[in-house]
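Hi there,

I know you've been waiting on this one. I reran it after we fixed the sequence typo, so this is the corrected version. Both the input and the resulting structure follow.
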Amino acid sequence: MSRQTFLELCQWLTPALQHQDTPKCRVLTVEKWVGIAVWKLATPDSYRSVGQQFGVRKASIAAVLMEVVRAINALLLHRLVRLGDPDAAIVGFASLGFPNCFGALDGIDIPICAPEHSGGRFLNRKRYHSMVLQALVDSRGRLLDIYVGWPGSTHDARVFRNSGLCCRLEAGIYIPQREIPVGDTTMPLCIITDAAYPLRP
């Protein structure tokens, strides 16, 4: 992340993260809050390691991270994350040899520490604890939709079936409704996936 991007992010998040000092506690600067969160999200470092890096108690790192993520969701999610140009995605996939494609969908296991008393649910088929993140991307790998939170033992098809993306696709309100000629037939737009996902309209 460039310094300019970092400072711009801090400026956007200041209304939600600016706190007042109290006689017993000196509050961290917005830059430090955002720096801690960006560092933790970008690296596999432990809370202890991040705390040492920023001179903050280990116990504070999780609270700082959650508050910054909440601020990002509240202030920036709908402002900065939006569906890209559907026509550009279609053209991009056509140039890659998929003429009727809107996006590519798959799930990935995000490693986590096993939660107490429920570690078995989070143990994935590769035998490590994780949460499943489902992502829909365009032809350039840019995120169009993400859905995260299911335990690592959950099959990709089940995650998809319970996602908001599935509901929007079935309702016909996510992808533009159009058919594209492919050879001597016409096909609706599609999303490509691997064999873990069922073939659905």
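Quick highlight: The radius of gyration is 21 Å.

Best,
R. S.
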